[in-house]
């Protein structure tokens, strides 16, 4: 029996400037560039085994604090479509067994699919013996449909660049990938995730990426983004926390304003989310510098300098609605866990 197996570990990432709105769904091309940091404690571990004896792909997922289950429906379909991409690159039709587990709540605004598709891409590519560089891995992870997965491939602080507007979609497809701005050691920041809801979100980002352009504020958001991207880039390079925090919060509010004014609208925040927003703003006025950002879910990411992270976490846990916190320092990118075993008899 011929098997080809590899295991990869990928971090979730939190966007300081959000990817929101999809320009081309087939290739997962965004309207705007985005910047994130990888989370060192929110990880997906995925093992992919291509096995000639399989008659279909078998996908087993283990979500946070749940028993493993066989993926069905859309979740299965998304993985199978990505496996097809990998198989096409390697010129094989061999089915795969995929075993993937998350150590953090899935689908609740902690970029679980970004980590999932980055790990699937890295492990699948290694199992098939393909030699791809970081740029090619990032491009491939982006095409999974979970665009932000491309930012989980490189290490540390990462930017997903927007290619030249003169390019056509095929050129964009080759040029839209993510690269490190700085390595994790460059700046000691912590993302304290305050979990106010561990349930899956009701509306997936895919649908809302399509709806974004229906908001009258979408054009305003796009016009503002180049300045915010420049501010965040500079803030990272100069380690200027105030500059980073102000641009980051403004961008989160702008993304959610677009969600709330799309047709139909989406409201991701709950009461616990609002409690945290008010608290973080009031801590700042008292001298504890922290900033919030929120992805497509109710949980809040509170970014602070690592020296303040324990105080921030303790204070967050006292707020009504906060179930628990997860502290993440800046993480490495996606990596292989063990050497590939090309032929296991
Ligand atoms: C709000 O389509 O990349 O997190 O919905 O997890 O598949 P999934 O991710 P994706 O959308 C990400 C949206 C965002 C902002 C961001 O991470 O840039």
What labels describe this entry?
single chain; 345 residues; alpha+beta; Ribosomal Protein S5, domain 2; 8-stranded mixed sheet; 4-stranded antiparallel sheet; 14 strands; binds ligand DP6
The low-pLDDT segments are 340-345
In terms of structural class, how would the helical and strand content be classed?
A: alpha+beta
**Which CATH class applies here?**
Alpha Beta
Helix content: 25-40%
Ligands: ligand DP6
Strand content: 15-25%
Order of helices and strands: EEEEEEHEHHEHEEHHHHEEHEE
Cα radius of gyration in angstroms: 20 Å
The average pLDDT is 93
Number of DSSP-assigned strands: 14
Q: Terminal Cα separation, in Å?
A: 6 Å
What would the CATH topology be? Ribosomal Protein S5, domain 2
Shape, principal axes of CA atoms: globular
Instruction: Summarize the biggest pleated sheet.
Output: 8 strands, mixed
DSSP helical segment count: 9
Indicate how many domains the architecture comprises.
1
Question: How is the secondary structure organized here?
Answer:
Elements: E1 3-17, E2 22-24, E3 29-30, E4 34-51, E5 58-62, E6 69-70, H1 73-90, E7 96-102, H2 112-127, H3 134-142, E8 157-160, H4 169-175, E9 178-182, E10 189-195, H5 205-211, H6 218-238, H7 241-260, H8 271-285, E11 290-293, E12 300-305, H9 309-317, E13 324-329, E14 335-336
Parallel strand pairs: 5-7
Antiparallel strand pairs: 1-4, 1-14, 2-3, 4-7, 4-8, 5-6, 8-9, 10-12, 10-13, 11-12
The protein binds ligand DP6.
Ligand DP6 binds next to helix 2 and helix 5.
């Amino acid at each position: 029996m011929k098997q080809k197996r590899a295991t990869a570990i990928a971090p979730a990432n939190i966007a300081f400037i959000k990817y929101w709105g999809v320009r081309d769904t087939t290739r997962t091309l965004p309207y705007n560039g985005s910047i994130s940091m990888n989370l060192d404690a929110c990880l997906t571990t995925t093992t992919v085994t291509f096995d000639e004896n399989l008659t279909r792909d078998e996908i087993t997922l283990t979500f946070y604090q749940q028993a493993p289950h066989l993926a069905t429906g859309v979740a299965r379909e998304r993985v199978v479509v990505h496996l097809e991409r990998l198989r096409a690159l390697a010129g094989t039709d061999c089915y795969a067994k995929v075993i993937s587990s998350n150590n953090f709540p899935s689908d609740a605004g902690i970029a679980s699919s970004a980590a999932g598709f980055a790990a699937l891409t890295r492990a699948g590519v290694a199992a098939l013996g393909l030699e791809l560089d970081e740029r090619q891995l990032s491009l491939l992870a982006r095409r999974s449909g979970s665009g932000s997965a491309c930012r989980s491939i490189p290490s540390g602080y990462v930017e997903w660049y927007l290619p030249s507007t003169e390019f056509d979609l095929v050129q964009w497809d080759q040029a839209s990938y993510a690269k490190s701005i700085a390595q994790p050691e460059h700046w000691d920041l912590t993302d304290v995730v305050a979990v106010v809801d561990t349930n899956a979100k009701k509306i997936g980002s895919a649908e809302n990426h399509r709806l974004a352009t229906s908001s009258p504020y979408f054009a305003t958001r796009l016009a503002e983004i180049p300045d915010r991207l420049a501010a965040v880039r500079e803030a990272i390079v100069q380690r200027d926390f105030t500059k980073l925090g102000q641009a980051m919060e403004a961008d989160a509010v702008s993304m959610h304003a677009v969600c709330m004014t799309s047709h139909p609208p989406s409201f991701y925040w709950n009461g616990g989310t609002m409690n945290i927003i008010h608290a973080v703003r009031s801590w700042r006025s008292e001298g504890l510098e922290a900033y919030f950002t929120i992805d497509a879910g109710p949980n809040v990411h509170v970014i602070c300098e690592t020296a303040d992270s324990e105080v921030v976490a303790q204070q967050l846990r006292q707020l009504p609605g906060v179930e628990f916190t997860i502290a993440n320092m800046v993480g490495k990118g996606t990596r292989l866990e063990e050497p590939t075993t090309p032929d296991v008899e």
